[in-house]
Amino acid sequence: MKSNRSSKSNSPSKSHICDYLIDPHAEFEMELNRSLDKSWREKAEKELNENKDANSKIRQLRSMITSSDLNKRGREDDAFLLRFLRAKKFDVDKAFKMIQKYYWMKVHSPELFHVSPPSDLKSMLEMQIQCMLPQPDLQGRQIYLFRVEKCDPYKVPVDHVFRSNVLSLEDAIRSPEVQIGGLVVLLDMSGLSLGHAKYLSPHLAKRTVEVVQEAFPLRFKAFHVLYEPFYFDAILAMLKPFLKDKIRRRIHLHGSDLNSLYKHIPKDCLPAEYGGTQPPFDNSIWRSRILNNEEYFRRLESYNNGCANEIINNNNNNNNEMYHNHKNVINDDDSLSDDEIYCDAEEDNKSLDVEIDGNSIHFIDTETEDSEEYDSDRVLSPRKKVPPIESLEEMFLKHEFSTFTLKEKEFEEVKP
Fold first, then answer.
1. Measured distance CA(238)–CA(240) in Å, rounded
2. Which tens digits make up the pLDDT trace of 116-152?
3. Which of 159, 256, 261, 291 sits at a 20 to 30 Å CA gap from 324?
4. What's this model's pTM, rounded to 2 decimal places?
């Protein structure tokens, strides 16, 4: 796929895009796309509708950006736009909405999306908490492993956890294979303690889900949870009001049953600690690549200039039909109370109800539904009604539990 250097929006006379014309990272990423082997090109065509019209859709997306205030904020090169088109299976309107949300989140939650310099997170990365595993699964999907036990809640600030995850995603999405194949998240919850409750506020829960569902140009294919505690339903209650049906169906709870995990992620992909054939967990190579690419993240951050309200207001006047009907796209909800955040999320879901099939409620989504189904007995059910609750920390402190050592029967008595 060739870079379109002759389009009007690429003209050197456009001062606001001079950065990407000389950005070595844009050309490097485009070269990665040009060198994709045949199997990946066929996969992209079959699964993502990436065909002979791809260049035309890149130009169409660039034209939409040029006619909006987004062109004052970010890259417009082919490689960058391809990320969003692939994430939305080359639906240009949906890709444009995602780019809008991507920059909106960076402006309205800068404390969470600030990825430069990555050296700010060096000490956390050295804790061996997380890593993009070197071996993809059988479908070519990248696997991201996060280990709660290694994350010391008394040393790692709340925002650093979120920022490190965004940093990991920003690094991974540079690869066209990851853009095409997608990402599988493996969350190891062993060692969860009361100290970790501060990472589970409704605000962070909402932002996390927004990244997965709306803002980041990556196809999140599955979420596998290992060693979740018996009170995990309370944790899921933090997320459920914000989750769309498609994402709910991609959450798989395995407990301590590694054989259940192997049905989805083969041993050949996993570190030795999880019964895999790979060496013991070590993120030093992955970590070094991120820390040694500080210039890339600095430039990525430098594109984030301008006013988000200008973007929203300008496009509401000219392209109103291209926006979500969600309050959180237009209003800054950072100051909302937890109850208001939950109410807002429930209202969003109600507004998306479009059809009923038996007992299952389906929601409109910005990504085309995949036909992939799972046979796990513990997939998070979209029908399960769990009422919103306060943060875990508040709930346990209210009932005077100082640790997460209470028995299951006792926990059932305090669950809301």
1. 6
2. 899 999 999 999 999 999 999 999 999 999 999 999 9
3. 159
4. 0.73
